[in-house]
Design a protein that fits this description.
The chain is an alpha+beta fold and about 350 residues long. The protein has 2 domains: about 30 residues, no CATH class; about 300 residues, no CATH class. The protein is built from 10 helices and 11 strands. Strands 3, 4, 5, 6, 7, 8, 9, 10 and 11 form a 9-stranded antiparallel β-sheet that branches. Strands 1-2 form a two-stranded antiparallel sheet. The N terminus is likely disordered. It binds protoporphyrin IX containing FE. Protoporphyrin IX containing FE binds next to strand 7, helix 8, strand 10 and helix 10.
């Protein structure tokens, strides 16, 4: 049997709570992530891990009970004490849970997270892949731990699976471009753009948007690289904006008065100065379902759903990248405030 070197090393070192990843031939231990506190793990702690398994469910049981049980299971899995992890060290395994608009609006229709996404352009979404009551996002460096945790989380009483998608995170997306460059960073930007400060029942939560975007990889690859770069608005090799200078400048023009970042480029259309919205934290995962179904599992977190909807509307009105995308699953979820002993998951709401 081919036992991965990292497992042997983790075993040999006898390091509880550590999993390894092979990066450029070097063993890099992945540290255990704290799951208790004011906010949930898996958003700003840690940075996106290489593997994700995202499930969207309906809740058929009592939401408070289902979420409370789920929270206990999350703590047991991520601490490595649950038998379903088969003795594996959990390493940087994280589980992030969100509640859909049906559940939130039943508590209070005024709460953030109570409103669903509208329908956008270029969607081909069949019934179970739109909406849903519960998002469970499992991430980690060790794909085996992610898979085992995900399997255990799918068998909780009172939930029914709608759809799920596995993804992998790398510096570049399947178009070959660096992705995730322009994002809020550090505690201050995250506090002002991502985490909800109130009302009290949702403080420490955030609004997640999930969109599975199938990409026309053949169509995009058939274009000259210069045209691809015009569509994105950045250079493929190093991510430099076409306006130069390290950060995107929407105003920069060539000597003959043309915008250096074209009017229909993705980074112009999606830029907050063009949308008049706040910033979103994007943590996309590429996915590969074989045949012609490959693309981006787009995941964003923001304080206000409007940050996403204003951006997507602006893109629908004239972003050249959109011609290469088809959305096949969509949902928004209130990522619940942090939890821990004496403060059950979802306890402030349900
Ligand atoms: C398959 C579809 C998509 C691909 C391949 C893609 C790719 C990219 C790339 C390569 C960048 C430039 C690097 C960066 O700043 O991270 C970027 C920027 C960005 N994208 Fe996307 N994106 C996609 C869909 C979306 C969607 C659905 C949204 C939101 C509605 C979005 C919002 C943004 C934003 C806000 C930026 C930063 C713009 C700026 O301020 O410079 N993207 N995207």
């Amino acid at each position: 049997m081919n036992v991965p070197r990292r497992s042997l090393l983790a075993g040999a070192l006898g390091v509880a709570g550590l999993a390894g990843c092979q990066a450029s031939g070097t063993f890099v231990p992945a540290r255990a992530i704290t799951h208790t506190g004011g906010t949930q793990a898996g958003i700003d702690r840690p940075a996106p891990q290489p593997h994700a398994d995202l499930g969207v469910f309906d809740v058929t049981g009592r939401p408070g009970q289902v979420l409370g049980g789920l929270g206990d299971l999350v703590l047991a899995l991520t601490s490595g004490s649950h038998p379903r992890l088969a003795g594996l060290p959990p390493g940087d395994l994280t589980v992030t849970v969100g509640a859909g608009p049906r559940l939130v609006s039943a508590v209070d229709p005024e709460l953030p997270g109570a409103v669903d996404l509208p329908v956008f352009e270029r969607e081909a979404i069949t019934h179970p892949c739109r909406g849903g009551d519960l998002m469970v996002q499992v991430r980690g460096t060790d794909q085996l731990a992610v898979s085992l945790a995900s399997a255990a989380l799918s068998t909780v009483d009172g939930v029914q699976l709608r759809w799920r998608q596995r993804g992998f995170h790398a510096e570049r997306n399947l178009l070959g471009f660096l992705d995730g460059t322009e994002n809020p960073r550090g505690p201050e930007e995250l506090a002002s753009e991502v985490w909800l400060a109130g009302p009290g029942r949702v403080a420490g939560g955030t609004i997640a948007v999930i969109r599975r975007l199938r990409l026309d990889l053949a169509g995009f690859a058939a274009l000259p690289v210069t045209r691809q770069e015009e569509i994105i608005g950045r250079r493929r090799a190093d991510g430099e904006p076409l306006s130069g200078g390290g950060t995107v400048s929407l105003a920069a023009k060539s000597a003959d008065g043309e915008y250096l970042i074209p009017p229909t480029a993705h980074v112009r259309r999606a830029h907050r100065l063009a949308t008049g919205s706040g910033m979103m934290l994007r943590q996309g995962y590429s996915y590969d379902n074989g045949w012609d179904d490959r693309g981006l599992l787009f995941i964003s977190y923001q304080r206000d759903l409007r940050t996403f909807t204003a951006t997507q509307h602006r893109m629908d009105e004239g972003d050249d990248l959109m011609a290469f995308t088809t959305c096949t699953a969509s949902g928004t979820f209130l990522v619940l405030p942090g939890f821990g002993p004496g403060a059950p998951l979802g306890g402030t709401l349900f």
